[in-house]
Design brief:
The complex is a heterodimer of chains A (269) and B (108).
Chain A lengths: L2 E4 L4 H4 L6 H20 L4 E6 L14 E4 L3 E4 L4 H4 L4 E4 L2 H11 L6 E3 L6 H10 L7 E6 L9 H17 L4 E6 L16 H12 L3 H4 L4 H8 L6 H11 E12 L4 E10 L1
Parallel strand pairs in A: 1-8, 2-7, 2-8, 3-6
Antiparallel strand pairs in A: 1-10, 3-7, 4-5, 9-10
Helix pairs in contact in A: 4-6, 6-10
Chain B lengths: L2 H13 L1 H9 L1 H4 L7 H8 L3 H7 L3 H10 L4 H15 L21
The chains are: A alpha/beta (269), B mainly alpha (108).
């Protein structure tokens, strides 16, 4: 009933004053507008497909895919002063999660988590999309950080499974993906952005070019789009779930935010 | 090399308030239960952010340790550049530096 993708880099909130306001303000405005449209769609729950950064999942036991199954979550796990987002308790819906997980499991061996502390990957989007903390959230995760990573084809299948799950439950379920696109976060190369690569990927995403989106090897992505580019999996999952045409409402590289800042929505077909 | 153990220490420190308190009062003891090489232990305790980066600690873990140590973002980026200059290229992981030492890609 509503689908979109957005950026989540911690600098978006944590280093806001260092960005050029001529870029920052239109980006923030597009982010907030997406939130207003999401809220206007009256979702009973929003699945946020994130690529968390070792807040909950680590290489001792790394799931390729995970879904939250709790009645509440909290975040940010980072210092609120560092991220400049206050701590909040976010409402979940364990019962709805359980029903959706059962459907997803028909085709994807998804892990579930009854505890989940949101990092910037979810908190930065929520800061703009749900400033008043009204929404019910179901966190989803795709491991995009600790290789070996799930193949892109499987990320597509995860998106398809989420769509089936959203269709079988009576609740109105929205889906938001958050990630990359190209970036080299938290390295000396932070601020490097491959705009041409990003725009090409976004074109493929918006036009539902499944073969194009799934054609990247991790080696190619690493070379051209950095380790942050692995997060295209979240965008791919949203495309598979929504099935419609995408509209990019905002895209601009903002180096101090370390990423090509993106706000886009997709029709549900 | 025990990059996994080194990363695990920082991962747990990032998410465990009790460990943070313990680490602030006695980092050496707090780090004892992790199987680290002498070089890794020294890098954590100093802290030598540049060396931790070169050893291959994922930036998504390392940037929070830097913040925990009170290091501002521009200084964090500079310490990683200095680390490569001093200790050579990144030895493991997926966070190798591509730019030159003098490049300030994000403008800081």
């Amino acid at each position: 009933m509503f689908a979109g993708v957005c950026s989540h880099a911690p600098g978006i909130t944590g280093r806001s004053e260092r960005a050029d306001s001529a870029l920052r303000e239109p980006f923030y405005a597009a982010f907030r507008t997406m939130g207003e449209n999401l809220q206007a769609a009256r979702p009973d729950a929003v699945v946020i497909i994130a690529a968390e950064h070792f807040a909950n999942f680590f290489m001792n036991n790394m799931p390729a895919y995970a879904l939250g199954m709790a009645d509440s979550y909290d975040g940010p796990i980072e210092e609120p002063d560092w991220l400049r987002i206050p701590r909040r308790v976010v409402r979940g819906n364990a019962n709805l999660s359980r029903r959706m997980i059962r459907e997803v499991q028909q085709t994807v061996d998804v892990a579930y988590a009854e505890e989940w502390r949101f990092d910037h990957g979810i908190m930065v989007p929520l800061h703009f999309l749900d400033p008043d903390n009204k929404l019910t959230i179901i966190p989803a995760n795709i491991n995009c950080q600790g290789p070996p990573l799930t193949p892109l084809r499987r990320a597509w299948a995860f998106g398809e499974a989420l769509r089936r799950a959203a269709d079988v439950v009576p609740e109105r379920v929205a889906v938001i993906g958050t990630g990359g696109i190209s970036h080299w976060p938290a390295t000396p190369d932070s601020g490097m952005i491959n705009e041409a690569w990003d725009r090409h990927f976004l074109d493929q995403w918006a036009s539902q070019d499944e073969d194009g989106m799934l054609s990247y090897s991790d080696e190619q992505t690493y070379r051209d789009a950095g380790q942050g580019g692995f997060e295209i999996r979240t965008f791919i999952a949203v495309a598979a779930a929504a099935r419609g045409r995408g509209t990019v409402h905002f895209y601009a590289p903002i180096p101090i935010f370390a990423v090509g800042c993106t706000v886009a929505t997709m029709e549900i077909v | 090399m025990s990059l996994y153990q080194l990363s695990k220490l920082l991962y747990q420190l990032n998410r465990d308030e009790d460990l943070k308190v313990q680490f602030r009062s006695d980092a050496k003891t707090a780090a004892k239960s992790y199987d680290l090489t002498d070089e890794e232990r020294r890098a954590v305790l100093e802290p030598d952010i540049g060396l931790l980066y070169v050893l291959g600690v994922n930036g998504q873990i390392l940037m929070h340790y830097a913040a925990f140590c009170g290091i501002e973002w521009p200084d964090y980026l500079q310490r990683m550049r200095d680390g490569v200059k001093q200790h050579g290229p990144v030895r493991a992981g997926v966070y190798a530096m591509l730019s030159d030492f003098q490049d300030k890609v994000a403008g800081v």
